[in-house]
Amino acid sequence: MTTQPNNLDQWFHHYADRASGLAASEVRALFAVASRPEVVSLAGGMPYVSALPQDLITESIDRVMRDRGPAALQYGSGQGLPALREQILEVMALEGIRASVDDVVVTTGSQHALELVTKLFINPEDVVIAEGPSYVTAMVVFKSFQAEITHVEMDDFGLVPDSLRAHIASVRTAGKTIKFLYTVPTFSNPAGVTLSWQRRLEVLEICRENGILVLEDNPYGLLYFDGPPPHAMRSVEEDGVIYLGTFSKTLAPGFRVGWVLAPHAIREKLILANEAAILSPSSFTQSIISEYMSVADWKGQIDTFRGVYRERRDAMLDALDDYLPDLQWTVPNGGFYIWVTLPDNLDSKSMLPRAVKELVAYTPGTAFFADGNGRNNMRLSFCYPTPDFIREGIRRLSTVINGEIEL
Ligand code: PMP
């Protein structure tokens, strides 16, 4: 067995080519540092689960065990629990989606759904078009299936349709195959911006004309602050959109339950892929969510989350205004994130060790691009720290940024 110099992994030469796409992301490396209690972490995207009614969840678990314990502890359907799939239709109806319960496939969070869809559609070197910036861990999945990721431009109203058109043309001219457009159109991760309704229609039209699937990833749509966002893209286009939803942000990520709503023709393949990967999604956590939704005011709970996150967003915007008035940032109407643009000559990645020394963490912008862009950007999350900690975190960040500007 030969080993690589400087490589302690003796199995290095055994890995499949696709494993080379599995490089640790900047976000991942950060978690260890940012979880120290003295650090104000504006880096992760952890929902504030303490705002959940813990007693109701405990009661739901008890009732599941009492009333249908053996079924909840057993393997289940590869497509997901029928009762929960019906309730998922109610969740999606809030964003204008009408669908058949037969077309919903339950997954282990929407991260798993990203993996299944990518596995079904991507051959090595196929192109995935994504917003620039885009969700880091979706890109890790695309890369692990050896996709080529290309970014379309975004502004305050989401991805720019003309840029998408130009992009499709140039990728095609290069003789490459585009499989899908991956988009987080509502309260995007990381930019915090929302695709306008007019643009949603335009993007759907462009993708329809060009035979490109739209992979609409929508974990944050119900967490709006100043009024509801436009309806989901899936609400007006059934055949060309694969829609991903999750309970991670409106309930809790620890359940690991999300779903795919796919065009009818794709559904069968998805169920087979789901079974091949995990046999069935967790009967236990699906049963708990289903029970919780049938006894709790789950829409009221989403309202509570909106209030919590609205207050935190406002705290972050106020602190940015007060401490870093010369920078630019997005103003999200929902979700978890603000995207900050630093002066051109600053590099958020090389600045990070200084920030951690000042006990504040953020995610460098380059994590959200496949092409090295984003050097002078950072993603700030306002979902987890309390408003006071957010303010203190931005104050510490201003010391670091102002120090860099003066250097
Ligand atoms: N997509 C986006 C845009 C996300 O922000 C996240 C979570 N950070 C996910 C998917 C994965 O969520 P889940 O917990 O449902 O796997």
Structure description:
A hairpin with a 2-residue loop joins strand 5 (154-155) and strand 6 (158-159). The chain is an alpha/beta fold and 407 residues long. The protein has helices spanning 26-34, 54-72, 82-93, 109-121, 136-144, 161-173, 197-210, 264-278, 283-295, 298-323, 348-357, 387-406, and strands at residues 40-41, 104-107, 127-131, 148-152, 154-155, 158-159, 178-183, 213-217, 241-246, 258-261, 328-329, 337-341, 360-361, 363-364, 377-381. The chain contains twelve helices and 15 strands. The radius of gyration is 21 Å and the shape is globular. Bound molecules: 4'-deoxy-4'-aminopyridoxal-5'-phosphate. Residues 45, 109-111, 135, 184, 189, 217, 219, 246, 248, 253, 258 line the site of 4'-deoxy-4'-aminopyridoxal-5'-phosphate (PMP). Residues 54-397 form the Aminotransferase class I/classII large domain. Keywords: Aminotransferase, Pyridoxal phosphate, Transferase.
